[in-house]
Design goal:
The chain has 508 residues and is of the alpha/beta class. The chain folds into 3 domains: 5-243, Rossmann fold (3-Layer(aba) Sandwich); 249-342 and 429-434 and 458-508, Rossmann fold (3-Layer(aba) Sandwich); 349-426, no CATH class. The strands form 6 sheets. It has a 6-stranded mixed beta sheet, with helices on both faces. It has a 6-stranded mixed beta sheet with strand order 18-21-22-15-23-24, with helices on both faces. The longest helix is centred in the middle third of the chain and has 16 residues, at 179-194. The structure holds adenosine-5'-triphosphate (ATP) and magnesium ion (MG).
Amino acid sequence: MNNDNILEIRHVTKRFPGITALKDASLIIKRGEIHGLCGENGAGKSTLMKILSGVYPYGSYEGEIIYNGNVLKLEGGSIRQARDEGIAIVYQELTLVPDMSVGENVHLGNEPVENGSINWNKLYSETQTTLKQYRLDVDPHAIVKTLGVGKMQMVEIAKALSEKAQILILDEPTSALNESEIEKLMEILKTLKENGVTCIYITHKLKEFFGNTDTVTVLRDGEVVTSQPTENYTMEKLVRYMVGREMKERFPEGHRKPGEIFFEVENLQARDPNEASRMVLKGVDLNLRRGEILGIAGLMGSGRTELAMTIFGELGKVTEGKIILEGKEIAINNSIDAIRNGISLVPEDRKGMGLVSILSILKNLSLPNLEQFSSFMHIDGNAEIKAANKQSVELAIKAPNLQVTVDSLSGGNQQKVVIGKWLMSNPKILIMDDPTRGVDVGAKYEIYKLMNELTEKGVSIIMISSDLEEVFGMSDRILVMCQGCSKGILDIKDASQENVMALATGIA
Ligand SMILES: Nc1ncnc2c1ncn2[C@@H]1O[C@H](COP(=O)(O)OP(=O)(O)OP(=O)(O)O)[C@@H](O)[C@H]1O
Ligand SMILES: [Mg+2]
């Protein structure tokens, strides 16, 4: 063991029923570095991190991990022991309790107790100290649900860290963050580094590795493909290591010919169901042609997700405005109305709204589509399996079989299941809210190809994305939102980053 190395992962193999998630993986993490980790969905990134944090205990994998010169032997069942050893982890999905304060969340299960009751002053002052030390700009008394995702992520970090933290693992922390929030997070990582904390950083936004990490390791199918100083890579090289082949374009070529306008939204206004005084949509006009992709651009909080949810009947009370489908005004009061009218939504939050984590892939795919497979109250199991199989092959969902529960899938593969279940419903209009979030470059390409195929068959797609490159790469037209209002639709020929941003920020 070299003292410059904080961690040496030696020949680690981890098997799950039907799948070997890590195959003889060896890797060195140097003390004080920011170490990037990438690989396709299901490559084994999260599994390795779960071993380091004790979710999978010593003995449940082959090989060994040397931490500060000693074999790491975590008992598992809780990440408490890892945390006490100085290994902190922030998971792929947020784990905060929304109705509690920042301080309560940071100390959850670890509250300072005196004479049998919680010492609140101490709890808040300790939280404040941690937040300050790492320059995390959050109020310890704020209730978590009132914070944006960027701040929530900071709370997750504060919660994971203890005074003894030596390693901080971040598993896709930026998938829900916007550009400026990502920049802030990078600043935080640098502050941590100054404080002597080593970081392991996982992301599918490959750009983030450059300029922010010291080393990048690529995993593919559970194996370490390469581990090199970041300056040795170019974007192309990194992608090649990840997918194992050359990938020239980010976006597949489409051959669609959009038809007539068949769906319109006029002056749509809606209120927050939980807070009637708050207007979530203040006036949105939109029209959609058959077989086109209408991209929706806008800053975080501009009302994009609210628009999607309102058209799908899942959000606010529509107070004003019309939704017109094929010349007729329709009422959409809930998602059942929406689905009957041929409208489907791939939601932003896959854990909350997209999937039932304890059910199988098969059931998740077929649940909203059972009508297709049933006659006289009887479900045709064969037809159900056949359709689900087809969908899972088309989306290249990585799993031993369709009977496994979706919570055993990697994050990106869960996202594919969400998309698959709505594709199976044969919609006329498919609304996709950040469809490629957390999805690897290869699978992104597959999703784009599917979007092209669907539109070529006449399905119309409304695509929300915070990735402007994606909006430009895939859309026929772009609707720009700003503060709950639509600011106009631009034809892709006339759209530039500048005029979209000008509309999105309200300058234009
Ligand atoms: N608890 C589990 N039970 C069974 N299989 C699992 C379990 N956890 C992970 N796997 C499988 O192990 C493989 C690696 O999964 P892992 O979550 O490590 O991937 P990942 O690289 O983090 O992917 P992503 O980028 O999608 O998050 C996948 O095929 C996954 O389905
Ligand atoms: Mg993962």
